[in-house]
Design a protein that fits this description.
single chain; 126 residues; mainly alpha; 2 domains; 5 helices; 60% helix; flat
């Protein structure tokens, strides 16, 4: 987002940057797996796989409302289900006030509930 505001000045949607291209992260995972295999450290591979897995979860959650270029470099088509119209002067507010934002709130609430339950369970077991 620093690049988006300070260098690109918002000319391109940040989902078109290399950080939002699945092919880049697959290459990072392949390189990490190769390095981990050469160094004979499974832990390095698991850490890299977990990190890239988190990024792909982010992509999956971005896809319905913001879109991801899943087929890049074969296609630069941005895949999404719903277009969030620009109804506010700052694009973030357009997302916050769109009904689809309720899904993000639900995910955050579910994560907080799971965290609370796990901590409560650990205290009971301790």
């Amino acid at each position: 987002m620093l690049y988006f505001y300070l260098i690109d000045h918002g000319r391109h949607h940040h989902h078109h940057y290399w950080t939002h291209l699945p092919i880049f992260w697959l290459a990072v995972l392949a390189l990490s797996a190769t390095i981990g295999t050469l160094l004979r450290t499974k832990r390095f591979v698991w850490i890299a796989a977990s990190f890239v897995g988190g990024i792909f979860l982010h992509f999956i959650l971005d896809t319905p409302f913001a879109g991801i270029c899943w087929l890049y470099p074969l296609s630069d088509q941005n895949f999404y289900l719903i277009t969030v119209p620009a109804t506010r002067s700052w694009w973030v507010w357009s997302f916050v006030f769109h009904w689809s934002f309720l899904f993000e709130i639900a995910i955050c609430i579910a994560a907080a509930v799971l965290l609370f339950r796990r901590r409560t369970q650990r205290r009971k077991n301790a």
